Amino acid sequence: MHVWRVPVPAVEVPALGRVLTDDERARARTFCFDEDRRRFTVARGVLRLLLAHYLGADPRHLRFASGPGGKPAVAGVPGRPRPSFSTSHSGDLALIAIAAGRDVGVDVQEIRTDADVTGLAAHLCRCQQAALAGLPETDRRRAFFAAWVRTEAYLKATGAGLSSLAAVDLCRPTDRWWLRALPVDPGYAAAVAAEGRDWRLACWRWTG
């Protein structure tokens, strides 16, 4: 299991734009703000370069499709196993998780001080809501974001989608899925979820 940390402001955008498809460049232009266009271009461009590296392919020729629940997948390259991947970006940080032979999901969130933690927590399962309510207010915000990224990583791995958010009870251990918090920049929370427990995690930083 490889998780790549991508500091968006530090990445050169023009070179990444050249590996995108015409459709992806057109999608980037639909964003109203420059920073949103940059985030999309960086996340998709680095994803293409990483998958091309693992597959021994041309990043410009990779094709993506939607699987069950809209989960993205990459078309296979002859002679190579097709990797599973997941991406997430928030603020100035993007994460890309890539795994072989198992589904994976990753999520990162900037710990925003203006977020309505109490209102958002109502979308989590009752077990997580109760755990958050029992914490001192000074600890509740960071604990909420830690719970939120774990839940979203799990939903991305399973392909269930956000409509299943409240039904996810991560307080109960499961043999099929394993979740781990990720060490990321201060001010962020992140987690990865993947099938099974027979995998090792390696974290990398994209330097371009």
Short account of what is shown:
The chain is α+β, with helices and mostly antiparallel strands and 208 residues long.
Question: What attributes does this structure have?
Answer:
208 residues; alpha+beta; four-stranded mixed β-sheet; three-stranded antiparallel β-sheet; 34% helix
Cα radius of gyration in angstroms: 17 Å
Percent of residues in helices comes to 25-40%
Which stretches of 5+ consecutive residues score pLDDT under 50?
none
Mean pLDDT: 89
Outline: globular
Main beta sheet strand tally, sense and closure: 4 strands, mixed
Estimate what percentage of residues fall within beta strands: 15-25%
For the secondary structure, the number of strands is 9
N-to-C terminal Cα separation, in Å? 20 Å
Tally of individual helices: 6
The neighbouring-strand order within the major sheet is 4-5-1-9
Structural class: alpha+beta
Taken in chain order, the helices and strands follow as EHHHEEEEEHHHEEE
